[in-house]
Amino acid sequence: MKYLVRTMFSQKPGFIETDVPLEKGLRIKVVKEYGEVPAVVVGAWRYECDTLWGYGGSLEGVDLAALESDVRESLEFLRHEGKNSLNIAIFAAEETVDRQTLQAYFVAEGRVDFRDLVRNFQKQFNKRLRLWQVGVRDRSQMVGGIGVCGEMLCCHAFLKDFESISVNMAKEQGLLLNPDKITGTCGRLLCCLRYEHHWYCEAFANLPEQGSRVKVKKDGQVKEVRIVTRNAVLRTAYVSDDEGNMFWVDFEEIDTTCGMTPKGE
C-alpha cells in the first residue's frame, strides 16, 4: 500500500510503500538518501508516484522535542546568515532522528555558492548540513496557506506534480487578466487554471475564434457579425454587427459551415 506522507518540521511531501497498515496522522520514520527523518502519514495514495521514500517504522524512542529544538535553532542561524551573506530565503528544515544531519530548503533567483555557510554551520552545530534549492511553487506546497478561493492551497492539499500553466488558459476561460485574480501566493499562475482547461477546449472545438466574422440566425434573419467573446458555460457568444449593435446568441445559432473569416481579416 502506498501512502502520502509529510516530513515533520519541513512539511516536505513524499510517498512510501509498505504492507504495514498506517492510519492518518500516525508519526513514523521515513528513509531518505541521507538518513531517517520523522514524518506524518497524510493518507493512503492510490495513484501513480515516481519517487518513493523508505518506511523506517515507528518513532518510538525518538526525542521529538529535542529534534524540534534543534531545527528551530538551526533555522534561526541559517536564516540570519543566508539573508545577510547570500541573499537567499531559507524557509524550512528537517533533521534526521540521529541528529547528525540537517537538510534546509531555500529559494533564490540563481545559483548560490554556500560553501562558507556550510562551514560556519558545521563549526557552530557540529553536524552535517544539506542545502536544497527549490522553486517558489515548491515553497508554497511545503508552507501551505489559503488561496484566493478561500480554501487551502491545492499544491499543499493534494497536488503531487506541477504542470505547466499559461496565460492562454485564462484567456480561453474568459477570465480577466488581472494578476491579483489569476496568480497564487507563490506569484505564479494559479494551478487551478488547468483543471477545466480541457473542457473549454472541447466546448470551443467546433466554434470560430474570438474576433472572427460569422453568420448567425437571429429573429428569422441571417446576419454577419463579429464574435466579441464566448461563454462556454452558458454556450453563448457575444457578437457585434456592422451597425454597432451588440447582443448574445446561442452557439446553435452560429453558422459554422459558411461565412466564417479568420481573425483579423
Can you give a write-up of this model?
There is one protein chain. The protein is of the alpha+beta class. It folds into 4 domains: about 1-60, no CATH class; about 65-135, GMP Synthetase, Chain A, domain 3 (2-Layer Sandwich), CATH 3.30.300; about 140-200, no CATH class; about 215-255, SH3 type barrels. It contains 7 helices and 13 strands. The chain has helices spanning about 65-85, 115-125, 135-145, 155, 165-170, 180, 195-205, and strands at about 1-5, 15, 25-30, 35-45, 55-60, 90-95, 100-105, 130-135, 215-220, 220-230, 235-240, 245-250, 255. A 5-stranded antiparallel beta sheet has the order 2-1-4-3-5, with no helix packed on it. Strand 3 (about 25-30) and strand 4 form a beta hairpin. The longest helix is centred in the N-terminal third of the chain and has 23 residues, at about 65-85. It is elongated and about 85 Å long. The N and C termini lie far apart (about 60 Å).
- SS-based structural class? alpha+beta
Percent helix range: 10-25%
What is the gyration radius calculated from CA atoms? 26 Å
Distance from first to last alpha carbon: 58 Å
**Beta strands, count:** 13
Mean of the pLDDT scores?
A: 89
* Main sheet: strands, sense, barrel: 5 strands, antiparallel
| Helix count from the secondary structure assignment | 7
Number of domains: 4
What's the overall geometry? elongated
Strand line-up of the largest beta sheet:
2-1-4-3-5
